[in-house]
Every structure is written in structure tokens, then in C-alpha cells.
């Protein structure tokens, strides 16, 4: 009895090594050696290694789920990274329920995205670079989720940030892509600063950065106060708050969300992998992983609840007024992340992880489906220019329909029938209501905001579906397509290298031409309307569709149901008085049906505006009402940040540069002294007249002066 | 009486080995003059080679016959010690290098007569006497022997108005300085009753006689002129610019070593006990030299004038070393001046190697533009030499200044060290400007290396010199041994 789990544990360790290191190997081979082994081979190696990793991750996950595989209690130690005094960090692989879930999510979506990219990026001249970045990202994300201490977590955190930066700006000849990548990087800096301070605070308070050692000490440190200026604040709250700042940046929560919609400048597979399914959920993972900290920090948990709920509602309101298909889904992602956060905030970490899990399937599905539409529409992203695409792209249509049903949460309560999003979202709403019943005001607020957000989610998701796939076609099957783009505010460029055909980015020059050379011809011969995507793109969609349909019902019990305690084990800690997961069964009956009802309301509204009265939405938009403008311009966050931070920073920089450095330091320092010396020497050289008697006179004067000096000194 | 004579003769022959270098130079000069007279102008190249050989031999002898302790010969008028032996070697090396550099230039200007090398050799003899002088007579003989030869070298291109002017200026002002020097000598002799350094030293130690101190002031003024230290530097830019470049190359190296070493010996040996009197004068001269050398050079467009101010500034640094006194000064001084002299010859070697396609000699800084393209090797050598003279590590020039700063910190003269560093910073500007011109400015004329066969010699010599600047370790240890004589 004892021998078998031991052997299985050895198997888990071996598999874990493969999961983490295979993507790194793929990235190195594909990135460094693609010139030697050829483009296709390099891409194949990267993709194949990812599928191997995914298979191993699936084995670990399924094994843990059905108890056939025992996960080792201690992290697998690979090598020492930092060992300075008490500050120790080890490269390790932590295997527990959280990392098992994240490994299958990351490698699963990543491998499918790798495969999908064979079709989507077929015409790009830099494919190996793209695949190398994707694999590098996957490795960084895996090292993040398998970290056993905060330092490796931070390494992965920054690694995914780097990969995200590189991939958003993959089409580096596009100005908008460069701006977006810098924006993503800078906004994440704000979060990462908080995160780094959090890690420092952890080390300061606990004397260690290893999760186990830190979490074990929490009971002893619960009453410790830190002095910060005149304030004396609980140490745990400070740590929790600082770490959450990092999570806010990475997961695009309210105030630090502005980079995510702009990140859609990257290729669509990147949006699906990084900016929907995996990287942006790192913040949720962090909060769940640090559940022992957040359970001991009620104030910060309340803050998380509020921020999460506000983000969920805010992003949903913005989503209803966007016209770029990818931006709608981006705001949807932002909103769903808000759901996860307030779930974690009220203590339902399991529900947050469950939603993360199901969301990965249906959001990747939606993005890749949107990518398929964009591909079929020749890189058109404006939904106002689509319509009636369903007739031409039947498989894509069905798949997008599944994605929409999943995100809007269609299902029948109390039965195992429902799409993935139904189970996870309902679990969140029910636990939130249950938490509200215990007197958690933030949870009560979050519940109602979430209900409104769910209504809006349903509305914008169906709006997207109807505008894209139904109604009258707004595209013309002719050669001019793609040249007369009239882009709405805020998204002046389309998705791909094809962008060079637009006047707005016509200046990008040779690189763009080179990059899109083949596509150029493609766009110019007569265009016969949308076409279905190749099989290599459809297969990943179909696989994800299965997940979007069944992931919820299959794993409900393990993640948030009756077996949750067993499934999560020590990975998630809940305080003895935290019973939200159980209490969710005892909420009033209307709460179970509320999500379904609000979904139907949203659907009805979308049907009314975009199917039965096609053009009504456009009329509202054309009136340019205050409310519409407010939503279309994303609550003017970009404008506000531009005015305050960007302009402010620039003004401050100008002040230091022009006045401080230029006038004061340079003016009085190097330049001033140089000018004075130059002036002085110009005057002085006049003494050198060339006349012998001047020289002789000076010599005699000097001799006399020196003699006088000696006399004076001697006296 | 006859026994007395025998003893004197015996004593004389015992002392001869200590002046063998000088005898070699003097005898060599006489023989070579005869060779030159017989062969005429066509013998000038052979004469040059012979002079170089004799000078190198004399330098080697000075080192080989170096006594372990200072030996004062000829009734206390002549000192043989490590200090002078080291200086003589450096003088011989730099003087012969300058001679080698002259061959092609003189031929080019149709000035290739045997007189030039012979005069240079006689000046070298004067320098040898200067660095070994141990009484006021030997001092004066050495200084004048050197100076008279140098006056002629300055005016050597006698058909050239500028050269004649330079020679005349140098002579007139040199005569004035000799007057100051002699006046000082007579004051010292009058008040101490002796010309011998050890007697003077004993007298100064016993009592502070204002007459002797006045004499000291005048002697130092005269020597400062030879060193071209401010405020007795006025002749330097004009003479450097007007003289034929080969003469300037000669002025800028060996005579500076000789004058600095003599200056140090007078301060340390003859007036050692009066340190607080000469210290003030040395400090004033050092500060003025550094300031003037740095400031005036900023405005120069002519390379030779620029190098003149550069040498004034560098003599200011040498004076800082002298100000550090007999214990720490000698080593720093020897390291510094030897590196400076070698670098200086190297710099002139580069200037002498250049001629535009239409036969013009390069004399302006702007004329160096584009050198990196027409002659990258020379450009690299020039850059390295300039970085060295700026004092950029790991080149030799850095260690020269390093030794001086080390010495100042040992004796607590930090303000002087700070002044030295500031002056170096300012002067770095004009050295860097040359480097910028060489590497980054558009070429104004195509540069052709001089001659075909001799171009090799020149470039080779320049490179050897440039490489020498890297042999600092050797220089340092030699100077340590040589400078130990005073402490």
C-alpha cells in the first residue's frame, strides 16, 4: 500500500520535470537554431515539445483528480539560485493542486495555440521567432506557477511580462504595437513595484521567502505591527496589500487595467494564450497561493473584493460599446478576472480557481474563434464591417456560439447540464451571496455588481455574436476590401502585417512590406467573401470547445463541490470560520436562478438591438450621446492617465532635464566652467605678444616679484 | 712636489671612469666633426648614425659605471650617482631618437648637413654635465654648453625668417636668463665663499643669509627658463613654432629632463636646508606653469605651439614632484620626466611622419583631420601617445602623474595634487580635440607618409616609442633605485 503511491510520486516528479523544461528546450531550439535546422523543423520541435508537456501535465492533473497519482509533499529542488545569508532561493518545482491545475491550463492552451499558429501565422516571415517567444512564455509561466518561493515566483512573473512585451510588439513595424507593448510594460512596472516591495516585506517580517516557512509562521506574526511614518499597520495586511498591487497589474484590475485592451495589438494567438487564458490570471493564482496570508488579512481581502467587483462591472460596461471584436473580448477578460478576484476576496479561492480553469477554455476559444473570423475576413476586426459571416464560416460560427453560451453561463441549476462558465460563475455568485449573508458588506456589494455585470456580459457577448455572424453583410466581395478602413476611435490599426495596406500606417516602410509581401498579393486579387479557416486552426478550436462545454460539469465537485477539501489539500488554506463553500448550498433559491435570468435579459436585449432591429445600435452610437461616448472611451481612463501621469512625468522629466540638469548642473558645472576657461584663455593668450622686450620685461618682473616674495616670507 | 703631482695624476686617472660618458661624447664630437668636414654634405646621414651610436654608447656607459653610492669627483665639482646615471640614459635615448627622426625631414628641406647631428651631440654633452654638476661652475658650463648648441639648432633653417627669429629670440632671452643665473651664482659665492654644493649646503644649514637666499632666487629663475617653467616660459611657444620641427622635437625632450634634474639637484643638494625658502618659489612656479600650460593651449591651432604649452604644463607637474622634497621627490620626478620625454619624442615623431600629397608639412591641428583613414597605424600611435600624456590608465603617462600624486600625499601637499588633477582635466580637452580631429573630422588633404624607405624608420621609431610608454614597470623600478641616492 505504501509502495505504490511512492512510485507514483516518482512518476509525478519525472512528469513535472518534462512539463517545465520541455517548453524551455523548445524555445531555445526554435529561437537559436532555426537557421540551422530550418524554419519548419524549428516550429515543429517547439510545437511537439509543447504537446509532450501538455500530455505530461494532463497526466499529473487527471492523476491528482482521480487519486491515481500522489503529488509529492515537498517541492522538487532543481538548483540553488540565491544563497546570501538568510536570503535563500531555490529553483524548484512545487507540485500541488494549484500548480497541477495551472500546468494543464498553461500547457494545454499553449500547445493548442502553437498548433493554431501554424495556420494563423502562415504568411508571417518571422514564424520561428514567434514560436520561440510562445515557448519562452510558456516556460516562464510554468516556472511562475510551480515556484516554491517568492523569488522564483517573481522570476516567472517578470519572465511572462517580458514574453508578453515581446509578443505584443511582435509586429514591431507597427507604431501602435510598439506603443502598446511599452504601455503594457510600464503599467506592469507599477504593479511589479508593489509586488517587489511585498516580497521585501515578506522577508523582513518572516526572515524567509519560502512559501512553506512563511505560511507556517503566520499565526505567530498575526499581531505584528509595522511602523510606516506615523502609521502603525498590521504587518500581514501590508504584505497582503503590496502583493495584491502586483496581482492588480498583472491581472489588469481597475486602475491598472489600461494596458490589456491595447495588448490586443499582438497577434490573436498571443491574445488567446497570454492575455486571456494564462498570464493575466497570474494575479488570481498569487492570491489563491497566498490564501494563508489573505485569510489573515481581512481588510485587504475586502479591498480585493471591491476592486474585483468594480473591475467586473466597469469592464462589462465598456465592453458593450466597443466595435473591435478583439477589444470586446479583451474587456470581457478584464471583467471575468474581476469575478475571480472578488471570489478570492470573499474567501472562495476554490471558486476563483474554478472560474480561472473554465475561463481558460472558453476565453481561449472565443479569442481563437475571433482569430478565425479575422483570418477569414482578411484581417478585418471591426464588427460593424462584418455581418452574415455564419453562412461562410459554419464551423467557426458553431464554435463561437459554444464560447458565447459558455461565457454567458447557460445551464440548468441543480442538474449537470450546463456550459463550463455556468458552473464556475454560479459558484462565484452563490459563494458571494453566502459570504454576504455572514455580514460581509463588500460581498453584498460585489454580489449585486456582479449580477449587473453578468447581465452586461450576456448583452455584449450576444451582441458580438449577432453583429459578426448575423444580419446583413457589411462587407463587399471585391478587391478594395481592406483599403477603405474607417476605424473607430482608439483602434486605428488592424491585427496583422496586413496593416501596411492602411494609410494610417503606410509609413512603416520596408520591413512591413517585407513582412507582408505575400499577403499583399493575397489582398489584391478579387476577394470572394469570408472563407472558413484551415483545419490546423479548427482542430484546436474543437478541442477547446469540448472543454468549454464539459469542463464545468465534470470538475465541479472536485473544485468547489463536495470533494473540494480533498482536491485542494494544503494548496489552499481556509480559516476555520470560512465556510462560504459549504454555505453556498444554503442560499435562497432565487440566487440559483438569478444568473440564468440575467443571462436571458442580456440575450433579449441583444436580440432586440442587433438582430430584430438591426441598425438600432448604430443609431444610438451615431447620436454620440454622453453615456455612449463615456463607455466607448473606456471611462476616459487613458485620457486621465495621459493628462496626469504621462504628461506629468514628462513635465517633471523636462523640469529635471532642461532646468535641473541643463541649466543648473551643466550650466554652472561642466559647460559653465568650460565657457569660463575658454573666455579666460582667450583673454590670456593676448599676453603672448611675440615681442622679445615684453618677454624680457616679464622675466625681470617675475624675478623681482619672487625675490620680494622671499623677503616677505623671511620677515 | 713631483710626488704631489704623481698623486694628483693618479687621482685624476682614478676619477676618469666617472666622466667616461662625457669624454666619449666630447671625443666623439671632435672626430665626427672631422668626418663631416671630409665627407661634406653627402656624409650627413652617416654622421647622424655615428652620433646616435656614440650617444647611446655614452648613455650605456653612464649606467654601467654607476657607483652604488654617490661619488663626488674633481674636488667636489662633479657628482656620479644613480640619479644622474638614470637621467643620462634617458637623455641619450630621447636625444638619439630625436636625431633619428630628423634625417628625412632635413633631407626634405635640403638642410641635411653634418652640423645638425654634431650640434645636437654637443648639446647632449652639455646636458650630461648639467645632470652631474655638483658646483656652480660645472652647472654654468653645462647650461651654457647646452644652450649655445640649442640656439644654433633653433636658427638652423637660416633661410627661413621664422627659424632665424626663433633662434634670435631664444638667444637674447637665453642670454638674459644666463645673466640672472650668473648673478645668482655670484651672490651665493660672495656670501658663502664657495661654489661647491656641499659647502653651500653647510652654510645654509648654519645660518639663513638673505644674500644667499637672493642668490638662490636668481639661480632658480635662470634654471626655470631652461625648463620653460612659468613665468619664464614666454620664449617657449615662439621658439617651438619657429624652429625647424626636428629642432623642436629635440628641445621638447632631452633638455627638459636635464633642466628638471638640475633644478632638483640644486634644490635638494645645494639648498637642501633652505627647503622652506625654495619651496614657496617652486610651488608658485608649479601652479603658474600648470595654469598657463592648460589655459593657453586651449586657443592654439598650431600643433607645435600646442605642444609647447603642453610641455610648460608638464614642467609644472615636474615642479610639483620637486616640491615634494628630497625624500619622495626624486623618484616621482624621474619617472614622470622620463615618461614625458619619451612621449614627447613620440608625438613629434608622428608630426614629422606626415606630409600632404602636395608636399606640405602638417603644422596645424586641422591638418590632421582624416589621418585615421589615410594612415590608421599612425593615427593609433598618436592616439595612444595623447592618451598617455593625458594620464589615462593603463598607459605610462598615468603612472607618471600617479607617482607625483603619491609623493604629494606623502608630504602633505594635497592642494598641489588637486591643482595637478584640475590642470590635467583642462588639458585633456585639447588632447582629446586632436584625437577627435584625427578620427572623426572630414579629411582636408590626403596624408602621405614621408619618403618610402625612411617612412619605415619613422613609423618604427614612433611605434617603439609608443610601445615604450607601456614599459612602465621597468621605468618605475629603475627610478626607485636611481632616486634612492638622496634619502
TrEMBL record, chain A:
The chain crosses the membrane at residues 15-34, 41-65, 97-118, 130-148, 154-172, 184-206, 226-249, 270-294, 300-321, 328-350, 356-374, 395-414, 445-466, 535-556, 590-611, 692-712. Its EC number is 1.6.5.11. One of its GO terms (biological process) is ATP synthesis coupled electron transport. Residues 147-438 form the NADH:quinone oxidoreductase/Mrp antiporter transmembrane domain. The keyword Oxidoreductase applies. One of its GO terms (molecular function) is NADH dehydrogenase activity. It is a multi-pass membrane protein. Pfam families: Proton_antipo_M, Proton_antipo_N. PANTHER family: NADH-UBIQUINONE OXIDOREDUCTASE CHAIN 5. This is NADH-quinone oxidoreductase subunit L. The gene is nuoL.
UniProtKB/TrEMBL annotation, chain B:
Its EC number is 7.1.1.-. It comes from the Bacteria. It is a multi-pass membrane protein. GO terms for biological process: ATP synthesis coupled electron transport. Keywords: Cell membrane, Membrane, NAD, Oxidoreductase, Quinone, Translocase, Transmembrane, Transmembrane helix, Transport, Ubiquinone. The keyword Cell membrane applies. The chain crosses the membrane at residues 20-39, 46-66, 86-107, 119-143, 170-191, 212-234, 246-266, 278-300, 306-325, 332-357, 377-399, 411-433, 453-486. Residues 133-425 form the NADH:quinone oxidoreductase/Mrp antiporter transmembrane domain. PANTHER family: NADH DEHYDROGENASE. NDH-1 is composed of 14 different subunits. Subunits NuoA, H, J, K, L, M, N constitute the membrane sector of the complex. This is NADH-quinone oxidoreductase subunit N. It comes from Candidatus Phycosocius bacilliformis. The gene is nuoN.
Amino acid at each position: 500500500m505504501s509502495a505504490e503511491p511512492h512510485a507514483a510520486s516518482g512518476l509525478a516528479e519525472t512528469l513535472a520535470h518534462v512539463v517545465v523544461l520541455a517548453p524551455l528546450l523548445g524555445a531555445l531550439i526554435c529561437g537559436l537554431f532555426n537557421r540551422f535546422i530550418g524554419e519548419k523543423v524549428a516550429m515543429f520541435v517547439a510545437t511537439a515539445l509543447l504537446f509532450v508537456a501538455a500530455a505530461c501535465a494532463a497526466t499529473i492533473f487527471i492523476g491528482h483528480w482521480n487519486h491515481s497519482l500522489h503529488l509529492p509533499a515537498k517541492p522538487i529542488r532543481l538548483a540553488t539560485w540565491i544563497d546570501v545569508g538568510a536570503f535563500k532561493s531555490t529553483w524548484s518545482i512545487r507540485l500541488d493542486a494549484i500548480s497541477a491545475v495551472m500546468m494543464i491550463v498553461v500547457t494545454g492552451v499553449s500547445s493548442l495555440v502553437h498548433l493554431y499558429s501554424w495556420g494563423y501565422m502562415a504568411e508571417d516571415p518571422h514564424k520561428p521567432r514567434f514560436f520561440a517567444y510562445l515557448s519562452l512564455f510558456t516556460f516562464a509561466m510554468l516556472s511562475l506557477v510551480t515556484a516554491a518561493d517568492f523569488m522564483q515566483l517573481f522570476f516567472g512573473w517578470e519572465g511572462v511580462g517580458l514574453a508578453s512585451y515581446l509578443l505584443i510588439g511582435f509586429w514591431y513595424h507597427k507604431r501602435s504595437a510598439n506603443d502598446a507593448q511599452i504601455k503594457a510594460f510600464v503599467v506592469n512596472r507599477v504593479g511589479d513595484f508593489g509586488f517587489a516591495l511585498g516580497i521585501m516585506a515578506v522577508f523582513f517580517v518572516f526572515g524567509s521567502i519560502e512559501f512553506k516557512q512563511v505560511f507556517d509562521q503566520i499565526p505567530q506574526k498575526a499581531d505584528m505591527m509595522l511602523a510606516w511614518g506615523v502609521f502603525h499597520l498590521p504587518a500581514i495586511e501590508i504584505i497582503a496589500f503590496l502583493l495584491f498591487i502586483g496581482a492588480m497589474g498583472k491581472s489588469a484590475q481597475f486602475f491598472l487595467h489600461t494596458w490589456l485592451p491595447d495588448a490586443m495589438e499582438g497577434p490573436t494567438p498571443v491574445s488567446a494564450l497570454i492575455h486571456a487564458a494564462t498570464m493575466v490570471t497570474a494575479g488570481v493564482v498569487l492570491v489563491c497561493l497566498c490564501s494563508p496570508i489573505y485569510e489573515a488579512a481581512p481588510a485587504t481581502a475586502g479591498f480585493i473584493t471591491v476592486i474585483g467587483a468594480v473591475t467586473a462591472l466597469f469592464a462589462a460596461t465598456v465592453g458593450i460599446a466597443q466595435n473591435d471584436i478583439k477589444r470586446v473580448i479583451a474587456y470581457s477578460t478584464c471583467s471575468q478576472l474581476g469575478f475571480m478576484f472578488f471570489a478570492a476576496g470573499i474567501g472562495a479561492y476554490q471558486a476563483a480557481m474554478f472560474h480561472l480553469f473554465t475561463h481558460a477554455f472558453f476565453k481561449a476559444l472565443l479569442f481563437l474563434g475571433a482569430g478565425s473570423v479575422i483570418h477569414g475576413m482578411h484581417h478585418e476586426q471591426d464588427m460593424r464591417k462584418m455581418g452574415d459571416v455564419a453562412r461562410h464560416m459554419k464551423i467557426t460560427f458553431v464554435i463561437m456560439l459554444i464560447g458565447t453560451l459558455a461565457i454567458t453561463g447557460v445551464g440548468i441549476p441543480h442538474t449537470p447540464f450546463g456550459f463550463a462558465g455556468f458552473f464556475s460563475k454560479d459558484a462565484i455568485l452563490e459563494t458571494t451571496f453566502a459570504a454576504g449573508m455572514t455580514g460581509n458588506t463588500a460581498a453584498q456589494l460585489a454580489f449585486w455588481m456582479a449580477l449587473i455585470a453578468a447581465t452586461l456580459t450576456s448583452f455584449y457577448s450576444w451582441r458580438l455574436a449577432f453583429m459578426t455572424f448575423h444580419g446583413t453583410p457589411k462587407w463587399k466581395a471585391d478587391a478594395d476590401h481592406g483599403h477603405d478602413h474607417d476605424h473607430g476611435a482608439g483602434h486605428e490599426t488592424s491585427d496583422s502585417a496586413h496593416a501596411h495596406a492602411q494609410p494610417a500606417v503606410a509609413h512603416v516602410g520596408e520591413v512591413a512590406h517585407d513582412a507582408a509581401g505575400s499577403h499583399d498579393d493575397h489582398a489584391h486579387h478579387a476577394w470572394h467573401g469570408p472563407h472558413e479557416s484551415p483545419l490546423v486552426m479548427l482542430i484546436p478550436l474543437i478541442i477547446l470547445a469540448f472543454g468549454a462545454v464539459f469542463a464545468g460539469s465534470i470538475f465541479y465537485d472536485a473544485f468547489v463541490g463536495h470533494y473540494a477539501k480533498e482536491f485542494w489539500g494544503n494548496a489552499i488554506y481556509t480559516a476555520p470560520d470560512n465556510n462560504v463553500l459549504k454555505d453556498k448550498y444554503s442560499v435562497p433559491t432565487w440566487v440559483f436562478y438569478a444568473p440564468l435570468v440575467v443571462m436571458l435579459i442580456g440575450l433579449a436585449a441583444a436580440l432586440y438591438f442587433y438582430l430584430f432591429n438591426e441598425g438600432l445600435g448604430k443609431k444610438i452610437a451615431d447620436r454620440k450621446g454622453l453615456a455612449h461616448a463615456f463607455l466607448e472611451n473606456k471611462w476616459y481612463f487613458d485620457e486621465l492617465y495621459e493628462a496626469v501621469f504621462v504628461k506629468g512625468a514628462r513635465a517633471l522629466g523636462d523640469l529635471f532635464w532642461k532646468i535641473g540638469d541643463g541649466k543648473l548642473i551643466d550650466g554652472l558645472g561642466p559647460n559653465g566652467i568650460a565657457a569660463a576657461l575658454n573666455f579666460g584663455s582667450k583673454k590670456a593668450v593676448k599676453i603672448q605678444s611675440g615681442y622679445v622686450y615684453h618677454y624680457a620685461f616679464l622675466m625681470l618682473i617675475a624675478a623681482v616679484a619672487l625675490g620680494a616674495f622671499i623677503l616677505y616670507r623671511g620677515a | 712636489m713631483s710626488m704631489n703631482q704623481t698623486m694628483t695624476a693618479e687621482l685624476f686617472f682614478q676619477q676618469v671612469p666617472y666622466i667616461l660618458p662625457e669624454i666619449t661624447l666630447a671625443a666623439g664630437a671632435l672626430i665626427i666633426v672631422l668626418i663631416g668636414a671630409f665627407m661634406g654634405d653627402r656624409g650627413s646621414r652617416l654622421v647622424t648614425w655615428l652620433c646616435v651610436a656614440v650617444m647611446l654608447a655614452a648613455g650605456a656607459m653612464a649606467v654601467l659605471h654607476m657607483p652604488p653610492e654617490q661619488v663626488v669627483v674633481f674636488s667636489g665639482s662633479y657628482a656620479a650617482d644613480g640619479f644622474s646615471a638614470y637621467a643620462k640614459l634617458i637623455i641619450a635615448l630621447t636625444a638619439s631618437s630625436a636625431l633619428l627622426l630628423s634625417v628625412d625631414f632635413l633631407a626634405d628641406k635640403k638642410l641635411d648637413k653634418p652640423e645638425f647631428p654634431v650640434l645636437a651631440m654637443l648639446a647632449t654633452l652639455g646636458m650630461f654635465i648639467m645632470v652631474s654638476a655638483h658646483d656652480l661652475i660645472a652647472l654654468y658650463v653645462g647650461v651654457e654648453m647646452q644652450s649655445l648648441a640649442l640656439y644654433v639648432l633653433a636658427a638652423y633653417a637660416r633661410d627661413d625668417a621664422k627659424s632665424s627669429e626663433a633662434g634670435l629670440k631664444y638667444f637674447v632671452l637665453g642670454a638674459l636668463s644666463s645673466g640672472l643665473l650668473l648673478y645668482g651664482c655670484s651672490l651665493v659665492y660672495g656670501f658663502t665663499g664657495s661654489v661647491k654644493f656641499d659647502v653651500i649646503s653647510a652654510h645654509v644649514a648654519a645660518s639663513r643669509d638673505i644674500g644667499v637666499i637672493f642668490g638662490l632666487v636668481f639661480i632658480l629663475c635662470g634654471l626655470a627658463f631652461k625648463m620653460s617653467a612659468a613665468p619664464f616660459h614666454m620664449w617657449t611657444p615662439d621658439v617651438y613654432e619657429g624652429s625647424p620641427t626636428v629642432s623642436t622635437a629635440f628641445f621638447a625632450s632631452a633638455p627638459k629632463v636635464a633642466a628638471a634634474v638640475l633644478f632638483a639637484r640644486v634644490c635638494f643638494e645645494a639648498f637642501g636646508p633652505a627647503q622652506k625658502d625654495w619651496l614657496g618659489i617652486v610651488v608658485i612656479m608649479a601652479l603658474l606653469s600648470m595654469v598657463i600650460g592648460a589655459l593657453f593651449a586651449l586657443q592654439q591651432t598650431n600643433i607645435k605651439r600646442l605642444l609647447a604649452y603642453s610641455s610648460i604644463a608638464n614642467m609644472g607637474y615636474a615642479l610639483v614632484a620637486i616640491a615634494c622634497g628630497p625624500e619622495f621627490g626624486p623618484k616621482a620626478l624621474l619617472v614622470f620626466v622620463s615618461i614625458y620625454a619619451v612621449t614627447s619624442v613620440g608625438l613629434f615623431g608622428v608630426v614629422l611622419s606626415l606630409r600632404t600629397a602636395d608636399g606640405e608639412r602638417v603644422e596645424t591641428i586641422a591638418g590632421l583631420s582624416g589621418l585615421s583613414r589615410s594612415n590608421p597605424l599612425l593615427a593609433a600611435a598618436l592616439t595612444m601617445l595623447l592618451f598617455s600624456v593625458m594620464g589615462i590608465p593603463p598607459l605610462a603617462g598615468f603612472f607618471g602623474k600617479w607617482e607625483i600624486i603619491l609623493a604629494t600625499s606623502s608630504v602633505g601637499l594635497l592642494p598641489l595634487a588637486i591643482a595637478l588633477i584640475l590642470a590635467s582635466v583642462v588639458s585633456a580637452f585639447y588632447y582629446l580635440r586632436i584625437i577627435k580631429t584625427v578620427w572623426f573630422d572630414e579629411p582636408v588633404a590626403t596624408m602621405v607618409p614621408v619618403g618610402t624607405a625612411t617612412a619605415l624608420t619613422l613609423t618604427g621609431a614612433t611605434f617603439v616609442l609608443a610601445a615604450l610608454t607601456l614599459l612602465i614597470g621597468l621605468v618605475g623600478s629603475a627610478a626607485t633605485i636611481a632616486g634612492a641616492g638622496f634619502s
